[in-house]
Structure formats: C-alpha cells, structure tokens
Amino acid sequence: MKKQNLSRRSFLKKGTMTAAGAVAIALSGISISPSAWAMTLTTLDHKTGKSLSALCRVLYPHKQLTDVYYDACVEGLDANAKNDPALLKLLNEGVQTLNSHSQNNFLALSAEQQLLVVKKIEGSPFFNQVRSHIVVALYNNDKIWSLFGYEGPSFPYGGYLERGFDDIDWLPNH
Fold it and tell me: Which UniProt keywords apply (predicted)?
C-alpha cells in the first residue's frame, strides 16, 4: 500500500468537495425510497415480523404512514422479545392464531378481512400486549408528528403560554 502524504491544502480541498457533493445530492431530491427499508429482526422470523407489522396497521391505520413506521414498532417488540422468552412465545403464538383464523396467511388478506380477524382476538393477552406497545412506539416517533400536523411538545419552547396556546390550525373551530 502506497503511503500518501495529506497536506492541509489537499485535506481542505477534499473536504470541501465532499461537502459540496453532499449538498448537491440533498438539493437534487435524491433520497432512499421508503420501500427500500428492510425490517431488521434478531429474534422473530421475517414472516412473523411482517404479520405483526400488518397487525399494527390494522390497530392504528393511517394512510399517510408507510410500512417503515409500523416495521420500526415491530423492531421494538423484537428487541423486547430477545430478553423475554414469555413475550417471544406470546408473539409467535399470537401470529399463529391470526393465521389460524385466516387460512394460514394473515398477510394475504385484504385490510377489511384482516380487521375481521383481529376483532376475533380482541382482548386476548397477545392483542393487548401488541396494542399497548404499538400505541407508544408509533406515536412517540417524532418523525411522524408533522404528518399529523402536530408541532411537537411545547415545554422546550417555554410552554403553550410563551409559544402560543391557540396557534394550531388543524383542529376545527367550534
């Protein structure tokens, strides 16, 4: 390997070129497609993860959210199940129950059919566990707040009195 001396001038030149390239890419609108996201699971298998993601969408349906956000919630469940064998068993058996109510393929059902299947397991420990995890994991994700018109917490900005308690425009006027 050839040793290369890097002068201050060449370092600054290369750094400037790298920064300019990054800005050019950002301004061109090139981004990673949401469909390029791959759910990373360490404990659950992929089909179970996708079934849980579909369940999350049934529980908290939002047309403006891509599967990326639901998949991220399932990654949290997967991380929790890694150290909790009882949770892992509950998740695996719960997905098996979903599949048993849908000719062994919950994922192949339409959204309306999935909702009917989910209503059959409503109130079960599996349903309650997934629902209670997802409501927090999904709505605490600050990346989706703007999609709902939520400006975020007011406390860091002095509270609603300092920031404007009536500046929201997404609630209907009564």
Answer: Signal
Structure tokens at 60: 């908290």
**Cβ neighbours, 10 Å, residue 54:** 21
Q: Which residues of 63-79 are buried (b: 16+ CB within 10 A; e: fewer)?
A: eebebbbbbbbbbebbe
CB 72 within 8 A of CB 92: no
What are the boundaries of each domain within the chain? Answer: 45-145
Q: Rounded distance, CA 109 to CA 154, Å?
A: 41
b or e along 139-150 (b: 16 or more beta carbons within 10 Å of the residue's beta carbon)? eeeeebeeeeee
One-letter identity of residue 35: S
Its pTM surpasses 0.85: no
Model confidence over 38-69: pLDDT tens digits? 789 999 999 999 999 999 999 999 999 999 99
74 touches 39 (CB < 8 A): yes
pLDDT in tens, 95-122: 999 999 998 899 999 999 999 999 999 9
Q: Which of 114, 132, 8, 14 is nearest to 61 (CA)?
A: 114
Distance CA 137, CA 133 (A): 6
